[in-house]
Amino acid sequence: MLCGGAQGTAGGSVGRGGMFCGVGGLIGLSAKLPLGWDLAESPVSTMTRPLQRVLGAAGLLRWRTYSCHGACVSPRQPVHGEAKRNGRPEGLGARLAAGPTLRDFLRDAGPAHGAFHHPAEAEEDPAPYLGTSTLAEGNRKVYLETYGCQMNVSDTEIAWSILQRSGYLRTRRLEDADVILLVTCSIREKAEQTVWKRLRHLTALKSKRLPSQAPLRIGVLGCMAERLKEEILHRERLVDIVAGPDAYRDLPRLLAVAESGQQAANILLSLDETYADILPVHGGVSAISAFVSIQRGCDNMCSYCIVPFTRGRERSRPVASILREVQMLSDQGVREVTLLGQNVNSYRDTSEAQFSSAAPPTCLSSGFSTVYKAKRGGLRFAHLLERVSEIDPEMRIRFTSPHPKDFPDEVLRLIRERPNICRQLHLPVQSGSTRVLEAMRRGYTREVYLELVHHVRDSIPGVSLSSDFIAGFCGETEEDHQQTVSLLREVRYSAGFLFAYSMRQKTRAFHRLEDDVPAEVKQQRLAELIAVFREEAAQVNAAALGSTQLVLVEGPSKRSDSELCGRSDGNIKVIFPNVEIEDGTNPGTRVRAQLGDYVSVKIISANSQTLKGVPLGRTTLRESASAC
């Protein structure tokens, strides 16, 4: 495919079949044109219109209009091998004379034996400007750096799996890298500033590159890439490639284009990309926990949130693909899996026709509402959660990040009945003020949220709760803030994620509301929320004194090799001495707990973040559940 704007580009390809672009709108053409032809360059565009109509009538030409917010490469110099005269590219007339005729486009394209085969279905030739050595390079080392949420950790594993298939090697040493890729976050301004600062540091490494070495390539992936798009390429020219969350399959091609000295980008969002056929390359051999992405994107459109604009619409990965990955992780010895999604509990698998009538319309938690119509059909989160929990009874199952509206009783019942589904829920509230919640378009009131909290605690005794809070949202008054403080005291969370509001472009708040709370007031309110949260969390954890907690060992404590660290079922960090203990799995023997072991620990001290205890013995998840 060939396309151009005011300045045509006859180089660099991204996406399947190649797609060229200039700085204007992009036009996709499925018929093959000679390298160097620019349909948008006047007067060629006018002269080729009859040809366009003929090919279109024959069904051999498909026009699609793109924006440079899609897949593109930056303008370049004439391609090697282009005809030149007096050091300049030949004129339009010479190029037209040597160019293709209608016969060239129609050759071998007619129907065969009465059946029409679209040219796109034929096997693609490699892009002519990407040599075999470029596409099959096997000794390039890539360094991946992750910022932000658990979804970005999962995206990093997907990106690495794709690059590994293309012959790249991974290095953990920045100095050894030929390619450096940053998987970025865009949820707050501070997150982006951290990445810009890092990019300037990395760019300095380029100038220190030895002439004998291949040029260092730097790429920005993920949400920041999707939000800022070409601005990243143009700003101080720090970056060689940009890829949005739905463009990781295109990384090998983007890097191949970058090797020719051009910048390249693909920031197209997809309505169906879930990377279901990509098995992520998870952590090292010693990893005992893993993230499994089950759902991407979000349809909630909260007024403060950039996620729908950086990760697109909600779509769910097929159940079979998820079960296959979880089984693989179990076979590798992973003991804890966290199911991930921007709105994980609105999961809905519609990948098979028979799933369309497999469930009634979405049933929201009592009192909650959405900005979209009820979704029909599909296998729901409760079905997936049940199937995942059956794979390995000794594997803990968690999930994040849910929305409070999507907690049907079926999910709560499963958590209560299945010992390997952790009794820990994330219930992001954002604010304790009904007025602010309405401005945020959260779809519930303070009272409705508190009713859900009480229902969850009645349904799952001993459940541990965590939440998200935003301080200083648009129009928030001191009274609104104090309502959030009082909600913190009433619910008493075990963990919390609290931040000052950061307005993001494209969001509803950016277009409709005023960021009118001064920065210093935001910070004061945030500090008060953090102080109250820690005070309440300390009391919640103090209630565990004298209890026995089942702890999954994660390794040595950061402060001392004489202590081990792990997490309880409620996701609270627990520290205990690394000493010999009774082996409940082999009575009469004593062992030292190892990575991935379950250990019963009696709690003897607590603060707002950590429990400390003494180990009672090694056990299993099933034995621990039967003893309760």
UniProtKB/TrEMBL annotation:
Its cofactor is [4Fe-4S] cluster. The keyword Iron-sulfur applies. It is an enzyme of class 2 (transferase). One of its GO terms (biological process) is positive regulation of mitochondrial translation. Signal peptide: none annotated. The keyword 4Fe-4S applies. Gene3D superfamilies: Methylthiotransferase, N-terminal domain, tm_1862 like domain. Residues 284-539 form the Radical SAM core domain. GO terms for molecular function: 4 iron, 4 sulfur cluster binding; metal ion binding; tRNA-2-methylthio-N(6)-dimethylallyladenosine(37) synthase activity. Its EC number is 2.8.4.3. Residues 140-260 form the MTTase N-terminal domain. Belongs to the methylthiotransferase family. MiaB subfamily. PANTHER family: CDK5 REGULATORY SUBUNIT-ASSOCIATED PROTEIN 1, MITOCHONDRIAL TRNA METHYLTHIOTRANSFERASE CDK5RAP1. This is Mitochondrial tRNA methylthiotransferase CDK5RAP1. It comes from Sphenodon punctatus.
